[in-house]
Amino acid sequence: MAKDFCNQQVVDGYDQHIRQLIPGYELVHQQILAILKVHLPKDAHVLIIGAGTGYELGYLLQNFPQCRFTVTELSQPMLEKAKDYVATWNKDDRVNFILGSHTEFEHIPQFDAVLSILVAHFVHFEQKLEFMHTARLSMKPNGIFLTFDLTQFNFEQEAETLKQMCLMNGLLDKQVEAMLTRLKDDFYTLSTKETFALLSDAGFSQVHSFAQVLCYQGFIAQH
User: Fold this and answer.
1) Whole-number Å distance between alpha carbons of 209 and 184
2) Which of 3, 43, 57, 123 places its Cα 20 to 30 Å from the Cα of 115?
3) Over 18-81, what HEC string results?
4) pLDDT at 10 over 80
5) What's the pTM value of the predicted model, to 2 decimals?
6) d(CA 37, CA 64)
7) 78-82, Cβ contacts within 8 angstroms, sequence gap of 24 or more
């Protein structure tokens, strides 16, 4: 059964659970922060696709005090959790919170960076090109796009390796088995080659990988 991100219990347990599910979760975010420190102008406008509980938005608000942020989220409970989490750093109202999808935006190039972290692997294969293409259309000519997602297993041992990592991170056996079952229900994964092709078809240039932890891989691309 697919996980319900509108369920308050799921939302409340997300931050702990995601760190057990994703190997190197915080290291990946440190890399994202470092990349943005290099690329962003001081007064940048950043789009975050998928607010989650606000962890990503929180460290960006703290590190980029002159930047503005637009944040989308499909789950109302998640969006409210994110608002509450970042309230301390958003006293000057630098964040525009949107319940909905960036694919519904009027496509005006306004963002210096677009982030899609642990989101695109939930997007159905038939909708992935529109997802990426509309993200690119929303970017300024010199903007950058960052995505980090689960990719396809190349062989069965990769699934077993992920299982062992999750067990070492504190998940119970039954939780790991539920996670592996969810991969079939919730995720629409691409191979590395297919991801490069998708980003190219969406109009992105200079696509390359910036991180890989087991079967999770991050890509950076330019407008």
Assistant:
1) 25
2) 3
3) HHHHCCCHHHHHHHHHHHHHHHCCCCCEEEEECCCCCHHHHHHHHHCCCCEEEEEECCHHHHHH
4) no
5) 0.93
6) 8
7) 78/5, 78/6, 78/11, 78/14, 78/51, 78/52, 78/53, 79/51, 81/11, 81/12, 81/14, 81/53, 81/54, 82/51, 82/52, 82/53, 82/54, 82/57
- 103-132 in b/e burial notation, b at 16+ Cβ within 10 A? bebeeeeebbbbbbbbbbbbbeeeebeebb
C-alpha 113/C-alpha 180 separation (Å) is: 32
Q: What does the alpha-carbon distance between residue 83 and residue 54 come to, in Å, rounded to a whole number?
A: 7
Using pLDDT thresholds of 50, 70 and 90, give the confidence band for residue 178: confident
Tokens (6 digits) for 89: 């750093």
Query: CA geometry: angle at 44 spanning 118 and 106, to 5°?
Result: 70
Q: According to the model, what pLDDT value does residue 8 have?
A: 80
8 A C-beta contact, residue 106 and residue 81: no
Highest CATH level, class, for 8-222: alpha beta
Q: Are 123 and 131 in contact (CB under 8 A)?
A: yes
CA 73, CA 197: separation in Å to the nearest integer? 26
Q: Is the pLDDT of residue 4 over 80?
A: no
Q: In angstroms, rounded to a whole number, what is the distance separating the alpha carbons of residues 141 and 129?
A: 19
Backbone φ and ψ for 124, nearest 5 degrees, come out as -60, 150
Q: Per residue in 134-172, pLDDT tens? A: 999 999 999 999 999 999 998 889 989 999 999 998 889
For residue 89, which phi and psi values (nearest 5 degrees)? -100, 0
